[in-house]
Each structure stands twice: as C-alpha cells, then as structure tokens.
Amino acid sequence: MKSKITLKKIAKEFDVSISTVSKALKDSHEISEEVREKIKAFAAYYHYKPNSLALNLRNQKTKTIGVIIPEIVHHFFSKVISGIERMANQNGYNVMICLSNESHEKEVLNMEMLANGIVDGILVSVSKETEEKGAYHHFKQLISDGIPLVLFDRVIDEVQCNKVIVDDLGGGHLATNYLIKHGCKNVAILTTPDHVSVGKTRKEGYIQALKEHQITVEASNIIKINEKEDIYTQIEALFELSNIPDGIFAVNEIYAATAMQIAHKRGLNIPEDISILGFTDGFISAFTYPTLTTVAQHGNTMGEKAMQLLLDELNTQDADYKHNTVVINTDLKIRESTKN
248, 188 in Cβ contact below 8 A? Predict the structure, then answer.
C-alpha cells in the first residue's frame, strides 16, 4: 500500500522547498516546466490531495459550521439537521453536530469548544434549562467575538442574531380552531411550562382560538407538563375531571400519544368520544392507533432557511448588515384521531 504523501515528502524527494512543490502543483511559471511535470507526475502517482483544513485555516476559514441541538432522538430535529446539511454541502461546508441534552452547562461547553476556531458559524436550538435559567451570556459573548449565530425553533428575543422559528402561535390557533369547528365543545391543552418558549406560544394560540369562539378558558384544562416527573400521571389527571374534555391539543406528539394511550385504557373511543391532535408530524404520529392528526412544522425547510441565513451573514460585506427572523408556516396533517 502506498504511504500517504505530503508536500514535505515531495519536497524531500526532489530536494526542493515546500514552496517550490506548492507552486509546481499550481502550475506556476515561476518553476521550470521540467520540474513542474516531474513533481505533478510524482504527486499523481501517490494520489496526493491538498490538506483542505490547512488551506482553509491559512485563509482563516474552516468551511465547517457547528450545530447544537437539545436532543438527537427527535424526528423534528433530525429533519432540521437534514435541511442544514443539504444547504451546507451545496455551498462547500461541512457540519459538526453537538448535543446539549437540554442542559445549560453542556450547551455552554459545546459553544466554547466550537467557538475556539473550529467553525465559521454556529446554529443553535436553545436547551430547556437555558430558557428556564434565562442565562444567555454565552450567546451574547459569541456575537461580541464576531462569530455568526443563528437560533432556530427555540429562540431568545433579547439575543440579537438571525433566527428561524415555526409559527407556533398560528399553529396553536390552527389546531384548536380545527377541533372546535369539528364539534369539540370542551378543548384541553397539554403543554410545557411557560419558560419553554414554543410551548408557551402554542398555548397562546390555543387561548386565542377559544376566545374567538367565545369559549371560557378553564384553568383545569391547561396541563403544563413537568418532564422531570411522570408524564403519564400528569396527563391522566385530565381524564379524572368531572367534565372530561372532548378534544385535546397536545404541543408535541409524545404528549398526544400518551393521551391516546390513557383514553384507550379508560374505554374511550377516538375520535367518537374524544378527538386528539398533536404537534410535529413525526414517526409517532403516523403509527399511533388511530393515526394522529398533527400540526406539521416542516423541519427540512427550517434547516435550509437557518443555514441560508448563516451563509448570508458569512458572505456579507455590508457593515450595516441587518439580522432577520424567518417564520415557517404550519399546516395540518389530517389523520384519524380527530372528527372530520
């Protein structure tokens, strides 16, 4: 097997400088034709390839971008990553993915590592713990260091950077309005604590739809799930109310699937007795019984838009560059878990 060849080895072989070899491989006329041809033939025989990382570092570019996501086993984030990678690869960039596991500390450590000259820019979906703590110094420090940042899905209003969000307000309104228009009189919501921005905004869309239909907002119908405790037990409390809801809007498909499991256990028919509608059109939604009607977030589109915003900032020469917030519209994927 031929050993890996480098500029240094080629230079040694011909007793010339590394600079001479580099110029010969670039077909520079500073080097005689005879020497150029010998060096190029030798390099071709040993399949010499330039060290792209070293070249990029000399140009002060790594051609790599970093992505920090809260969790990897999540259909939505896998779709976002797919969109990011497609757009990045089309523009000559590689993607390095890091996982925060919903931890503020891990998110900060990942960002410090990526910002240490490894990447040209960073894409982040903020961890739940960071939102809960309201601790955003690491984002502001990154921006002050001149490293482009794009926040996607879960974003922080006070951090001045490019952002890509789902229309969570519109999605929450769309879902609740659909349940009401298809016969539900008592609609509940399974949501997150208010420090999780996407859950809070979807809840606001739910409340907005109820008020538009002149339906009283019942505090007992708003279940804020603490994921550090048993999710099943918290959702089961909804089914123990004296007036069990005939419609449930869940802000993610895990909550929706759990509600369906409890409804089956209690002998309720879906959707005849209770309609259930989720958020995020993932694998779970397609394989529940009955299949789950859900709000589609379009993760691929979000990933592509986030990467495009990062490329725009990386390539801009405009000193007055203005950050943008792109909103991805939602729509309903109608299946069997709701009346229609």
Answer: yes
Same fold, 62-166+299-327 and 168-297: yes
Find out whether 338 and 277 touch, Cβ atoms under 8 Å: yes
Domain map (residue ranges) of the chain = 7-50, 62-166+299-327, 168-297
CB neighbour class for 166 (10 Å; exposed up to 12, middle 13-18, buried from 19): buried
Distance, in Å, from the CA atom of 193 to the CA atom of 132, rounded to the nearest integer, reads 9
Q: Is the peptide bond before 271 cis (omega within 30 degrees of 0)?
A: yes
Q: In what order do the strands lie in the sheet with 275-279?
A: 222-224, 187-191, 247-250, 275-279, 293-296, 331-333
Please give the structure tokens belonging to residue 225: 């799930």
The class level of CATH for 62-166+299-327 reads alpha beta
* pLDDT tens string 181-212: 999 999 999 999 999 999 999 999 999 999 99
Does the predicted model carry a pTM greater than 0.90?
no
Q: What CATH number is given for 168-297 in this structure? A: 3.40.50.2300
114 HSE (CA, 13 A, CB side): 30
Q: Does a cis peptide bond (omega within 30 degrees of 0) precede residue 50?
A: no
